[in-house]
Write a structure and sequence with these properties.
This protein has 328 residues and is mainly beta. The chain has a single domain, classed as Jelly Rolls, CATH 2.60.120. The protein is 7% helix and 45% strand. It has 3 helices and 27 strands. The strands form 6 sheets. The chain has an 8-stranded mixed sheet with strand order 1-14-15-18-25-20-23-2, with no helix packed on it. A 7-stranded antiparallel sheet has the order 3-4-5-12-7-10-13, with no helix packed on it. Strands 6-11-8-9 form a 4-stranded antiparallel sheet, with no helix packed on it. It is globular. The two termini are 21 Å apart. InterPro entries: Pirin, Pirin_C_dom, Pirin_N_dom, RmlC-like_jellyroll, RmlC_Cupin_sf.
Length: 328
């Protein structure tokens, strides 16, 4: 970790820190620890949002840190075919590869540093699995999947896909060059990431050198979350300690701060965090497994549509008769 970086951070555009005299620093309202479990056919995950009130997460619903795990030959695992409706999935691969196929004919390979945005909308079926060559060889697997809610007016929008190659991510640094910032979606300090989202969000993967600090301007109408992928440090004006698997929930303000500890473990020589924020939707949520709607009746309809085959059938026929393209 990470897959996308530079040899000399000083050549990167710099994000100016917020004005200390006028900005309002966000304090930390809670720090939680992600429980570990298994997903799909048995790959390990950390449930990043477990135990956090939805009002603090809105517009985000769910996030898994997949791995980090070193597979032996024959061990890599994926998921079976399953449906989605009513939200967007964002899959960000730090290391390793995973293939996707869906009932619209979409699909593709998500490799180290790539991000794939899937708007499930009105619904589809899909499957995720490591490529055959990866199953044979084994190797490192590490990624994140984030679920972003859709407002009621867009729950039944047509499915949409966006592939963001690792080379397309906006690379930035801080004023002192102490961190690499990968802006995947949204805007920070006048810089814009490549991700185009139905629900306004910002998503940043920051790698912070030992002892360095990241102080970012943050939209006051967005919520703010920091999830620790690896390493240790502190967050917020009050220097709350955090380490791998911790999620920090911030209160109101227009600036947030993350600091890396001066000493890191050899396995994680730097602090790696995801910084997330979005515009709350503030609508009722009715969720059942892979369906996220607004009412119980809409959930019942989603289940009935799935059982009746109205979310698609498998296997899919690739679009235009060629190689599948797009989707998670």
């Amino acid at each position: 970790m990470p897959a996308v970086t530079v040899d000399d951070v000083l050549v990167l555009p710099r994000v100016a820190g917020p004005d200390v005299s006028t900005s309002v620093e966000r304090t930390v309202s809670a720090v939680t620890a992600a429980p570990q479990g298994y997903e799909g056919e048995g790959f390990p995950v950390r449930r990043a949002f477990a135990g956090v009130n939805h009002r603090d997460l809105d517009p985000f619903i769910h996030m898994d840190q997949m791995g980090e795990v070193e597979y032996a030959p024959g061990e890599p695992k994926g998921t079976a075919w399953h449906p989605h409706r009513g939200f967007e999935t964002v899959t960000y691969m730090l290391d390793g590869q995973i293939e996707h196929q869906d009932s619209t004919g979409g699909g593709g390979l998500i490799a180290g540093g790539d991000t794939q945005w899937m708007t499930a909308g009105s619904g589809l079926l899909h499957i995720e699995a490591p490529p055959e060559a990866v199953v044979m060889s084994g190797g490192l697997f590490h990624g994140v999947q984030l679920w972003v809610n859709l407002p009621a007016r867009m729950k039944m929008t047509d499915p949409r896909y966006q592939d963001i190659g690792g080379g397309e991510v906006k690379l930035l640094t801080t004023e002192d060059g102490g961190a690499v910032l990968r802006l995947i979606a949204g805007e920070v300090g006048g810089h814009t990431g490549p991700g185009v989202t139905h629900t306004p969000i910002t998503m940043v993967h920051a790698t912070v050198s030992p002892g360095a600090q990241v102080r970012l301007p943050w939209r006051p109408d967005f919520n703010a979350l920091v999830y620790v992928l690896a390493g240790s440090g502190t967050v917020g004006a009050e220097h709350r300690p955090v380490s791998t698997g911790n999620l920090a929930v911030f209160g109101a303000g227009d600036a947030l701060t993350v600091r890396a500890g001066t000493t890191q473990e050899s396995r994680s020589p730097q602090l790696d965090v995801l910084v997330l924020g979005g515009q709350p939707i503030r609508e009722p949520i009715a969720a059942y497994g892979p369906f996220v709607m607004n009412t119980r009746d809409e959930l019942i309809t989603a289940v009935e549509d799935f059982q009746a085959g109205r979310l698609g059938t498998i296997p899919a026929t690739p679009k235009d008769g060629g190689a599948p393209g797009g989707g998670h």
